[in-house]
Amino acid sequence: MAVDAGRTGRPTLAVVGATGAVGSVMLQILSQHADIWGEIRLIASSRSVGRKLAVRGEEVEVVALSEEALDGVDVAMFDVPDEVAERWAPVAAAKGAVVVDNSGAFRMDPEVPLVVPEVNPHAARRRPRGIIANPNCTTLSMIVALGALHAEFGLRELVVSSYQAVSGAGRAGVETLRRQLSLVAGTELGTHPGDVRRAVGDDTGPFPEPVALNVVPWAGSLREDGWSSEEMKVRDESRKILGLPALPVAVTCVRVPVVTTHSLTVHARFESEVTVDKAREILATAPGVVLFDDPAAGEFPTPADAVGTDPTWVGRVRRALDDPTALELFVCGDNLRKGSALNTAQIAELVAAELMGRGGV
Ligand SMILES: NC(=O)c1ccc[n+]([C@@H]2O[C@H](COP(=O)([O-])OP(=O)(O)OC[C@H]3O[C@@H](n4cnc5c(N)ncnc54)[C@H](OP(=O)(O)O)[C@@H]3O)[C@@H](O)[C@H]2O)c1
To answer: Which residues form the Semialdehyde dehydrogenase NAD-binding domain (predicted)?
Structure first.
């Protein structure tokens, strides 16, 4: 194991993609969590070489991704586009690092575990390719609450609609919304067909339509029969994490003009009759979940309040009117914290504990 002079015997961590939307939140989390790491090496593309970023109160210079940059790394977090992870994660693993990958490159590989520490921490120990995958942000924003309900009631079906924040599309998504908002703020736009589109222009960034003053029923790329890649990820990844390969899942992913924090409506059907009281008891005590559910007092989660926090927020808990085996929920989760960086950090901490011989799971 590589060691850093001041932190002898501790694992060396590489953050690949340290300059991105996820990477930036990762550096905050690493600064807030218990300091278990030796060296923390910050890696990005050659565009960012020499930039200095703060982590653990120290300025660290960014280096370019290369074989050399991965020398002596024990745990490598990959917060980079799919194609970069696909090429470089196996290189890091071959050099002896345990990779925790945030991209979509390996999530459905049967030799790569897909891990949510509150739901399936044991899966992190079996990693034949030396790679552990982090689920996508939409799945992660709901799966901790669903995992807790599944453990008690036995999940049988999921029907989900997402209300996804623009930072799910990285820095470019945030820049696009902010630019569009500046063009429509203080106007009377939003009253005639196409007026918002004309105001924001043809460059809609990573989105197919204007996102300011709008709701866009699309996230990701086109898959078979009109489904989007994001919808397929929610279905496939929920099944894999929960160990329910045949779970019926229907998903519609929608982009909304929120900077950060994904919301979802969830219709979850279980093995037998459920009660709201029992569901509330489970959610109120589940690690990583906050039950915030008192509509009479105007209390339910919203992205504006959940952003920047760690838990999965759950409100509007109801039993389905026409099915006593089903629950309706509204869930909010910060897509850059639990939805990506936090979950990756938690997995990396499990691995570090294992490497240090303390047994993490
Ligand atoms: N945003 C979310 O909510 C979210 C949630 C879960 C998972 N993810 C996944 O996490 C990954 C990163 O997403 P993001 O939103 O943080 O994207 P982003 O803001 O666009 O950042 C991309 C990062 O990757 C680096 N990078 C790009 N090309 C590279 C190359 N050829 N070599 C080395 N580094 C390279 C960039 O470095 P430079 O600054 O030098 O270009 C930057 O640090 C993606 O796979 C994404 O799907 C994102």
So the answer is: 12-127
Pocket test for ligand 1, best of 27, 65, 67, 80 (most atoms within 8 A of CB): 80
220 ligand 1 Cβ < 6 A:
no
Residue 299 lies in a domain: yes
In terms of C-beta density within 10 A (0-12 exposed, 13-18 middle, 19 or more buried), how is residue 6 classed? exposed
Query: What's the number of domains the chain is made of?
Result: 2
Show Cβ contacts of residue 238 under 8 Å, excluding neighbours closer than 6 positions. 139, 143, 146, 158, 244, 247, 249
> Does residue 196 belong to any structural domain of this protein?
no
Output the known binding site: 19-22, 47-48, 107, 164, 167-168, 255, 335
Provide the annotated active-site residues. Answer: 137, 262
- Amino acid letter, 80: V
pLDDT at 341 over 80: yes
pLDDT of amino acid 8? 76
Contact of 282 with 118, CB cutoff 8 Å: no
Please, which residues bridge with residue 133 across strands?
A: 101, 114
| Residues 6 or more apart in contact with residue 148 via CB below 8 angstroms | 118, 282, 283, 286, 289
* Domain hosting residue 327, numbered range: 138-165+215-333
Pocket test for ligand 1, best of 22, 61, 143, 256 (most atoms within 8 A of CB): 22
- Both 58 and 111 in a single domain? yes
Confidence of residue 150 (pLDDT cuts 50, 70, 90): very high
102 and 251 housed in the same domain: no
Judge residue 321's burial from the number of C-beta atoms within 10 Å of its C-beta, 0-12 exposed, 13-18 middle, 19 or more buried. Answer: exposed
**Which protein residue's CA is at the shortest distance from atom 45 of ligand 1?**
103
